[in-house]
Design goal:
five-stranded antiparallel beta sheet, two-stranded antiparallel ribbon, 32% helix, 28% strand, globular, binds thymidine-5'-phosphate
Length: 151
């Protein structure tokens, strides 16, 4: 029950919690863990909390971080090709046959994408911040990716 958040630029809850300027580019990706617990409002936790709460084994944290950083590298390049900055995203993991596996989808619902030229938000923040044009932005991402979309 952990959400793994990878951040390449400061945005969202991070700039509310800490004194980072929105849009600040990090020299290396920031990895955060959140405990999925509605009663506690999904608090941010560190690796020690996660292990002591028995949410994950220490050796699995290493694997989760390695896979997350690999996905980050791949997805930064993937979105760069269509002129989008991958600001941050969330991933969830599980176990299958004893192995740590990714158990998630990747869409503008679970990441932040900003247009490299205009800075336009192309993700769920359009909904969260009531900016309008949610469907249009999602369709544009799909179209830039070459996904045929009938709308
Ligand atoms: P945050 O800035 O609100 O902490 O979100 C960081 C990233 O994680 C952002 O791309 C949105 C994504 N996210 C989810 O997909 N689901 C969630 O429940 C949360 C809290 C964040």
């Amino acid at each position: 029950p952990i959400e793994v958040v990878i951040r390449n630029y400061a945005a969202g809850s991070l700039v509310k919690r800490l004194a980072f300027n929105r849009g600040k580019k990090f020299s290396k990706p920031l990895i955060e863990f959140y405990y999925k617990c509605d009663q506690l409002n999904d608090p941010i936790i560190n690796e020690s909390h996660a292990v002591l709460l028995k949410l994950v084994k220490e050796e699995d944290i290493k694997k989760i971080k390695k896979i997350s950083l690999k996905i980050n590298n791949l997805m930064i390049k993937y979105f760069k090709k269509i002129n989008l900055m991958l600001v941050d995203f969330k991933l969830e993991f599980g176990r299958f046959n004893g192995e740590v596996v990714l158990g998630d989808e990747f869409s503008p619902d679970g990441c932040r994408l900003w247009d490299k030229t205009t800075g336009k938000k192309m993700d769920k923040d359009r909904f969260r911040e009531e900016l309008g044009g949610v469907l249009e932005a999602y369709c544009e991402v799909a179209e830039r990716l070459g996904i045929v979309f009938d709308h």
